[in-house]
Amino acid sequence: MTENRRIHRLTIGTAQLGMAYGVANVTGKPSRAGALAVVDTALARGITAFDTAQDYGECESLLGDLWADLGELRTRGITVVTKLGRAVDVRDPSAVRRASAESARRLRRRPSAILLHHPQHVDAALDGSWSTLEWLGDVVEADAVGVSTYTPHQFAQAVDDPRVGVIQAPLNILDQRLIRTGLLSWAERRGKRVFIRSVFLQGLLVLSAAALPEHMVFARPFLQRVAGICADHGCEVKAAALAFALLNSRSAEVIIGCETPAQLAENVELVQSVDEFAPVVEDLRQLEIPPDRVLDPRQWTAGPSSSS
Questions:
Q1: Whole-model pTM above 0.70?
Q2: How confident is the model at residue 303 (pLDDT cuts 50, 70, 90)?
Q3: Position 73 confidence tier, pLDDT thresholds 50, 70, 90
Q4: Is 152 exposed, middle or buried (CB count within 10 Å of its CB: 0-12, 13-18, 19+)?
Q5: What integer pLDDT is reported at residue 29 of this predicted model?
């Protein structure tokens, strides 16, 4: 796989642009100028895919405004995936149609996909309790529909459901469940469009064990093991985390969030040398998978937001 193809597998996660997001975020939500610089840097580096959601603060409107500022020529080829908000009654086609139209209006473009976002919406749609997936593709202003999953069970249901074209799911050094079960390769073989999120586990992986907030000390031994393996290979955890996502999938698109253009540029540079990290990635694959309390940010008391 060429370096260019790997760069094109990157999608810019925009939660950080619309709100203060992530346990390791020390800069807060960037200014409008700062957000414009991030978007401009992404486009300059050949990244044209963005991920957002109705519940990411003002993010949809901000992105639409920024793309308008940059102009049609500069933003040609941009694609965006968005997700329905918690308050939308996803059992009601007319409510979903209105919410979808609002997203398209705020973004000033038709999304490439609209996803069910919140766990209760996803569960009810996938297990058939709600008929949402029967008509979702007919009412939204998007080219495809899908789900943002939180567990391997949801992911397996989504892969097996012909109505689901796009799946978003967490995968990272600590959360290797989709790899160990073979679910990720199965989804790729089935032709699903997969987005990997939580590559840095909402920033947890880039924190030193000593810098953990008091309410999250339960994660310390797992971070120490990761740090030890990376130290043995002479590499930073952040670099290993991005390489882990890219080298463990063939075609999945990898969502990376950033608060500054410098962070984004650093990630792109890492992608260009990702093969150098194959040995550390192989050793990291031998780690014990932690309990859900570590893997699921919804269980981090006083931690980040409950969904991503």
A1: yes
A2: very low
A3: very high
A4: middle
A5: 77
Q: What is the pLDDT of residues 254-269, one digit of tens each?
A: 999 988 999 999 999 9
Beta-bridge partners for 256: 12
What is the rounded distance in angstroms from the CA atom of residue 257 to the CA atom of residue 272? 18
- Domains of the chain, CATH where assigned: 3-299 (3.20.20.100)
Q: Alpha-carbon distance 178 to 151, whole Å?
A: 9
Closest of 156, 94, 82 to residue 126, by C-alpha: 156
Q: How far apart are CA 17 and CA 159, in angstroms?
A: 30
C-alpha angle 214/220/222, rounded to 5°? 150
176 has a pLDDT exceeding 90 = yes
Print the SS3 string covering the chain.
CCHHHHHHCEEEECHHHHCCCCCCCCCCCCCHHHHHHHHHHHHHCCCCEEECCCCCCCHHHHHHHHHHHHCHHHHCCCEEEEECCCCCCCCCHHHHHHHHHHHHHHHCCCCCEEEECCHHHHHHHHCCCCCHHHHHHHHCCCCCEEEECCCHHHHHHHHHCCCCCEEEEECCCCCCHHHHCCHHHHHHHCCCEEEEECCCCCCHHHCCHHHCCHHHHHHHHHHHHHHHHHHHCCCCHHHHHHHHHHHCCCCCEEEEECCCHHHHHHHHHHHHCHHHHHHHHHHHCCCCCCCHHHHCHHHCCCCCCCCC
Q: pLDDT band for 107, please (50, 70, 90 cuts).
A: very high
